[in-house]
Amino acid sequence: MTYSTPSIGFISLGCPKATVDSERILTQLRAEGYSIQSADDDVDLVIINTCGFIDAAVTESLDVIGAAVNEHDRVIVTGCLGARAELVRQQFPEVLAITGPHALAEVMTAVHTHLPAPHDPLTSLVPPQGVRLTPSHYAYLKISEGCDHRCSFCIIPSLRGDLVSRGIGEVLNEATRLVESGVREILVIAQDTSAYGMDLRHRTDIWHGRALRTDITTLARELGTLPAWIRLHYVYPHPHVDTLIPLMAEGLILPYLDLPLQHGSERVLRAMKRPAASEQVLKRLERWRVDCPQLVLRSTFIVGFPGETEAEFTQLLEFLQAAQLDRVGCFPYSAVAGAAANALPDSIPEAIKLERLERLMTLQAEISRAKLAARIGQRLTVLVDAVEEDAIIARSEGDAPEIDGEVIISGEWEIDVGDFIEVEIIDSDAHDLWAVPIDDAL
Length: 442
Ligand code: SF4
Fold this sequence. Notes:
- By secondary structure, the chain is an alpha/beta fold.
- It folds into three domains: 7-114, Rossmann fold; 138-373, Alpha-Beta Horseshoe (pyruvate-formate lyase- activating enzyme); 379-437, CATH 2.40.50.140.
- The chain is built from twelve helices and 20 strands.
- The radius of gyration is 26 Å and the shape is globular.
- Bound molecules: iron/sulfur cluster.
- Iron/sulfur cluster is lined by residues 147, 149-151, 154, 156-157, 191-192, 236.
């Protein structure tokens, strides 16, 4: 098998500051194994570092871009003229990506999107899909870092900063590589998955010749074309989450939403600096279930938040009773150093926090038991997580690995981890399901 090295032509215009930017980009490209050649050669991609200082420089930069797009299919523009993206975009809509000056990371993201870095197993010990800690049949796909919210119990924004989304093409390339390496389920994660692309003002990127808006719905739709289960985690309840439900109903992504709601009392939610609209949330859940009856909802809650009264805790229980969520995680409030909520009065004694946790989980266990019992007799596709001596441990579309339940198929079977099988549910408890393979599924 031969491995061709992706080649890049680089044109550097402008002042010494632009030259230094060019050197940094070139250094990174070489470090990643790209071949750097003249832009006059038959290269795979051309990068132009432009100048926009005076009119003559603008004209020269535009001329150079024009010549490059005539000669090459893939052109990326960076530098001072790139800061006036509209001007470039108007004249040359075929340019793949435009960044301002001093934008090494953005340029590299664009390069990775349109010309993935070379991988040669003869010289590289790292597989194309990277080194992963998860089992080979599922993988986490991180689409952004940081968070623009300021929930008062959380210090993640001060640790990881504001939201920074990855380019949509880069994310799709990674997902494609994962599936090609045998991954059967992709778990989409971020601090706030539904905010994806907001920091990039939902810019449009070109990926495989198509214009894609950088937003969670577009990303989910594209991921949904891959032959793998796509599961969304940590979906902050932004209004546009509604647009994901039709994708679930269509079967493009799993009908599963991990939507941290944190509380059912509007006063507590306001103190948490979270969206305080429990009634509306209930209405939305109802609507989602009408639009996608197979939807499985997971959420997490905090009990014992400073100032939480017994009446407010009861409101949370009432909310849970009304919401009938499928899966619930609950944590007693803990004062993380640096969290704004630590300054709130009326902290709740540990014993009361634990007692509330117990009451909440007891209620949820009843709800979960009834919901799982209703699935007896259903036929489902499950994904095999483990093959033990006397049972297969699998999961349905409604169960995320590690945090949700299992589907247990008793007996000794010839099957591999990562296989999908059709089963019929025969029994359940508060957490797990038991099933038998349908007909000759095994
Ligand atoms: S709890 Fe989640 S949404 Fe809120 S600030 Fe922390 S990371 Fe952001």
